[in-house]
Amino acid sequence: MSTAAFKNYIDGQFVESTETFDSIDPSTGVPWAQMPAATVADVDRAVEAAHRALRSGPWASMTATARGKLLVRLGDLVVANAGRLAELETRDTGKIIRETRAQIAYVGDYYRYYGGLADKHEGAFVPIDKADMEVTIRPEPIGVVAAIVPWNSQLFLSAVKLGPALAAGCTAVLKASEDGPAPLLAFAELVHEAGFPAGTISILTGFGHDCGHRLTSHPLVARVAFTGGPSTARQIVINTAENLAYTTLELGGKSPVVVFADADLDSAANAVVAGIFAATGQSCVAGSRLLVERSVKDEFLARLKRKAEAIAIGDPQDPATEMGPLATLRQHERIESIVAESLAGGGRLVTGGARPQGKTNGFYYAPTIIEAPDQTLACVREELFGPVLSVLAFDSEAEALSLANDTPFGLASGVFTTNLAKAHRMARGIHAGVVWINTYRAVSPLVPFGGYGQSGLGREGGLDAIRDYTRSKSVWIRT
Ligand code: NAD
């Protein structure tokens, strides 16, 4: 895998771009590489190639088993190149090397899982009530897929789209975020090496307002799979309206973590700290709202403060580092401003709230805990996408549930208790696509993932995801 010059990968070729932009190393704030900005013409070429590959050519006539083998090979190549991919992701996004290595190891599992499913996704014979008729149902690929990902976890968020899309027989154009696109442009080399026919997968990067807009409003795109922020999602729904492209949306969250007094408090504290401060809080499932039973609040907060202040903040490429910088200056500025607003509005700073000591360069921000008097503070309501935990106390299970659900989001949640019946009641009552009980942030290719409310539409992962990239054709035969 070479990384000397990053190029877009369109119709089976690595292409020079007429326009480029600087990619910034978040640990220094200094540009480290030039990235190709795809133009509208580049997008058109990629979509047209995907359409040709879908209609004619080797991909269109390939058996599901052969498609599946290509996906498994791609998964193997990701694992074989995990070290290099992780290094690039860390360099371009500031996500620490421990986390990028760990995540890329299971990105390979997603391609292998969907590769294995490609020839197990069956149609049906329908026993209708007519003696001289037979009906079969054929699951057919829905068409050209536009996959759009945000900058965080780009390899993972692409795998949950490309895996089921290609297993279903679709072709795809993947747009890497303009922030931190290096790992996906390097991944394109593995797609090429795996031997996918030209046009089956194109990978490009560029800006949302031109390249992203064109991709999601292109008349030949039948399916849009988007992960990102809610305001971009609304724009994308408008983009897709003209062509009525089927769209799934994986959006943000303000995930509650509920800690009852009867929980194993030390293991809960470890999970809460990892739940919010992993990836410097830049994770859609970040457990950013802690709801803790009042009788243990002070003791629990003291544990959290100790653990948060012990986190080793530093160079993201150093394997000893436990928390790196934020990915962009814009994120850093936004977090500074929401924290200031929340403290002015009555929040009590438990720890953090500023740059970590000695970190004058780069986009570093200290692990921050704010105790909030109620749910109205900006740090409680808004997704910050940063290392800021808001804390509220509750007195009863009913109050915990009501606070947990007092948000327009509904992506993930956590419940810590040793009372099994209470855990089940909370799991039933919480409005979120994921409830983790006595654990946090577990994922698997076998398990569906997605949000309620403003956290999105549709599910990724699991068997259902592949159905979402097919449409059924009913074939009626007079016998
Ligand atoms: P973003 O919405 O700003 O950008 C996401 C992608 O959309 C980028 O590739 C961008 O170029 C593209 N885009 C922007 N405008 C566009 C337009 N008009 N048309 C088409 N594409 C356009 O998101 P971000 O700041 O990069 O990422 C953070 C957000 O992503 C957070 O809200 C986070 O919660 C969410 N997220 C969700 C999940 C999930 O699975 N639910 C996972 C990770 C991140």
From TrEMBL:
<dbReference type="InterPro" id="IPR016161">
    <property type="entry name" value="Ald_DH/histidinol_DH"/>
</dbReference>
<keyword id="KW-0558">Oxidation</keyword>
<dbReference type="Pfam" id="PF00171">
    <property type="entry name" value="Aldedh"/>
</dbReference>
<feature type="active site">
    <location>
        <position position="250"/>
    </location>
</feature>
<dbReference type="InterPro" id="IPR016160">
    <property type="entry name" value="Ald_DH_CS_CYS"/>
</dbReference>
<dbReference type="InterPro" id="IPR016163">
    <property type="entry name" value="Ald_DH_C"/>
</dbReference>
<feature type="domain" description="Aldehyde dehydrogenase">
    <location>
        <begin position="15"/>
        <end position="475"/>
    </location>
</feature>
<protein>
    <submittedName>
        <fullName>Aldehyde dehydrogenase</fullName>
    </submittedName>
</protein>
<dbReference type="InterPro" id="IPR029510">
    <property type="entry name" value="Ald_DH_CS_GLU"/>
</dbReference>
<dbReference type="GO" id="GO:0016620">
    <property type="term" value="F:oxidoreductase activity, acting on the aldehyde or oxo group of donors, NAD or NADP as acceptor"/>
</dbReference>
<comment type="similarity">
    <text>Belongs to the aldehyde dehydrogenase family.</text>
</comment>
<dbReference type="InterPro" id="IPR016162">
    <property type="entry name" value="Ald_DH_N"/>
</dbReference>
<keyword id="KW-0560">Oxidoreductase</keyword>
<dbReference type="InterPro" id="IPR015590">
    <property type="entry name" value="Aldehyde_DH_dom"/>
</dbReference>
